Amino acid sequence: MIYVVGSGPAGISCAHALLCKGLEVTMLDSGIELESERAKILEKFVNSKPESWDLDSIHTIKGNTVASTSGSFFKGVYGSDFPYREVTAYIPHEAKNVQPRISLAKGGLSNIWGAAVLPYIDEDLADWPLSVKELTSHYESVLSFMDLAAVNDDLVNKFPLYSKTYKPLNPSNQTIDLMKDLESSKSILNSKGFLFGHSRLAVNSNCVYCGLCHYGCPIGAIYNSSSTLEELKKNKSFHYIKDVIVQKVSELNNKVNISAITRTKNEPITFTGERVYLACGVISTTKILLESLEAYDKELTIKDSQWFLIPLIRYKKSPGIVNENLYTLSQLFVELFDLNLSKNTINLQLYMYNDLFLNAIKNILGFTYPLFKFPVNELLDRLMLIMGYLHSDSSSAFSVKLEKNTSKLIMEAKINKNVNKTINGVYKKIFENRNLFKAIPIPGITKIPNPGYGSHSGGSFPMRLKPKDFETDSLGRPSGFFKVHVVDSTVFPSIPATTITLTVMANAYRIGSAYNEI
Ligand SMILES: Cc1cc2nc3c(=O)[nH]c(=O)nc-3n(C[C@H](O)[C@H](O)[C@H](O)COP(=O)(O)OP(=O)(O)OC[C@H]3O[C@@H](n4cnc5c(N)ncnc54)[C@H](O)[C@@H]3O)c2cc1C
Ligand code: SF4
C-alpha cells in the first residue's frame, strides 16, 4: 500500500497523481470536519438562490470573524474554528514572535485560504534544484481538477495560465475604475517595473457575487481540497482513513512503518506500506521528521514569504460599493520588479471593499456611527488594501526545534532587519507613482506582522541536488530515507512571493507522478 498523509492541497494533489498512475492509495488524515449543524446550513445555501438566504443563517456562518483596526482579524470559516481545532493538543508548540498556522482539518488550510494562485518563475527559483520547465505539466494537471478564474491579460507575458478552461470573474466597479487608470498609463508603469492584471483565483464560475468570501464561500465556489477528496473517494483504488495523527515514520526491510495515534481514543496505531508521502503542512511535517530522526533540540529554519498590508485611497470614488454584488477575494495583481527593492518579484494583491472594512469602522465609531454614515461611505467608495508578499530571501524567517523532554516544537522569529526598509521602499514607490495609480497609500498604517502570519512558509528540509543531513533530494526524500517523500512546502528551498499553494500542488503532483521512475 502507498500512504499519503494529509488531505490539504499537497496531499490531495499527490494522491491524484498516484491514482492517475493506476496505483492504490490510502490517505491518512487527522481530518477534523465542520460541525454538522453548520454543514446543514451550507446545504440550504447550495440549493437556493442568494435572494432567499435567510439572515439568521448568514449571521451564523459569519460567526466571530471580526475585523480590527490593526488590520488583523480572526479568520475562521462558516463561523467555526474547526481548521485550527486540537492543534495545541496534538502539535504542542511555543511560538515567540511567530504566527504559525497549523491545521488538523480535512482540507487543511484550504478551508480558509484566499485562493490566489500565480505560478513561480525561474528568476525566483535560483536555489531550487529544478526549473519551472519541470513543473509545467504538473501546473497543468493541477489546474485540470482545480478551477481557475483568470483573464488572458498582460500577466500572461511573465506568468503563463497553464489552463485552457479558465473563466473570468466579474470585477467590481472599484476594480474596473482602477484598471482603466492603470491601462491609461500602462507603458510608463511597465517601465517602472509594475506589471498588472486581473487576479488569478481558484474559484469556479458558479460564483454568485454574494460578498461573503471572507467568511467561507456558502456555495463552495472557492476551491477547497476537501471537494477533490470527495471526488477521489469515488475511485475504488483510493481509501481514506480519518482521525489518525501521524507521529513518526521509519524504514525497515524495504518497507515503511508509520506510527500514529487515533484522534478519538488517543490509542497507538501503525501502518506498513511500500512508500509514504507526507503532506501535513510545513510545521506538522517538520515535527514528524524531527521525531522520526530523533533530532531533538536540533534547530532548523523555516523560511517565510513576508506578508504586509498597505491601505490605499483612490482620488475618485466608485459610488455605491457598499451595496454592490461582488466577490471579496483579491481582484487585481500587481507584480513589482525593482532591483533596488528586491532581486525577486514582489507580489501585490489588491483587495477592494468587503463588509469587514465597514464593521471595523463601526467598531471604532460605536453608537456615533449613524452621524458619520455619509463620510464613512465616501471613504469606503475609495478604500482599497494592498496585501503584499516578499520573496523569502528578503523576508524574516523563524527557527524551529523539537524540545526533547516535552516533544514541544519551539519556534522563534529570525528577523531580517531589511524587511522594514524593503516594505517602506514599496510604500514609497507607490506614493511616488500615486498619479498613475490615481491613489495614495495612507501614511503611517502599513502593517508588517510577525513571520508566519501570511502562511506562505516552508523550507525546513530543502530539496537539493546533493542533499546533506536535514535536506531532501529532488523527490522530497530526506537524507537517509528511500521510501519517505515529503510533498508539501517543507521541501521548498526558498519561497517566492507569487503565492505558494499552486506550486505546492504542482510539486506534490510532480513527486507523485515520478512513482514508477524510482
Ligand atoms: C488565511 C490564509 C489565507 C491563505 N491564502 C492563500 C492564498 O491566497 N494563496 C496561496 O497560495 N496560499 C494561501 N494560503 C496558504 C495555503 O492555505 C497553504 O499553502 C496550503 O493550505 C498548504 O497546503 P498543505 O496541503 O501543504 O497543508 P495544509 O493545508 O496545512 O494541510 C495539512 C493536512 O495534513 C493533515 N495533518 C496535519 N498534521 C497531521 C498529522 N500529524 N497526521 C495526520 N494528518 C495531519 C491536516 O488535517 C490537513 O489535512 C493561505 C493560508 C491562510 C491561513
Ligand atoms: S462572492 Fe465569494 S463567497 Fe460569494 S459565491 Fe463568489 S466566491 Fe463564493
Q: How many domains? A: 1
Give the CATH architecture. 3-Layer(bba) Sandwich
List low-confidence stretches.
69-73
Oligomer: single chain
SS class: alpha/beta
Number of strands: 19
How would a textbook summarize the main sheet? 6 strands, antiparallel
Radius of gyration: 23 Å
The percentage helix is 25-40%
What's the CATH H-level homologous superfamily? FAD/NAD(P)-binding domain
CATH topology: FAD/NAD(P)-binding domain
Strand order of the largest sheet: 4-12-13-14-11-17
How many helices? The count is 14
What is the straight-line distance between the termini? 16 Å
Write down the CATH class: Alpha Beta
Summarize the structure.
This protein is of the alpha/beta class. Helices cover 26% and strands 19% of the residues. It has one domain: FAD/NAD(P)-binding domain (3-Layer(bba) Sandwich).
Key descriptive features of the protein:
19% strand; 6-stranded antiparallel sheet; binds iron/sulfur cluster; 518 residues; alpha/beta; FAD/NAD(P)-binding domain; 19 strands; binds flavin-adenine dinucleotide
3D structure, described in words:
With 518 residues, the chain is of the alpha/beta class. The protein has a single domain, classed as FAD/NAD(P)-binding domain, CATH 3.50.50.60. It is 26% helix and 19% strand. The protein has 14 helices and 19 strands. Strands 4-12-13-14-11-17 form a 6-stranded antiparallel sheet. Strands 5-2-1-9-19 form a 5-stranded parallel sheet, with helices on one face. Helix 1 runs parallel beside helix 8 (225-232). The longest helix has 14 residues, at 419-432. The two termini are 16 Å apart. The model is unreliable at 69-73 (pLDDT under 50). Bound molecules: flavin-adenine dinucleotide and iron/sulfur cluster (SF4). Residues 5-11, 28-31, 75, 101, 103-106, 108-110, 112-117, 244-246, 279-281, 284, 455, 488-489, 499-501, 504 line the site of flavin-adenine dinucleotide (FAD).
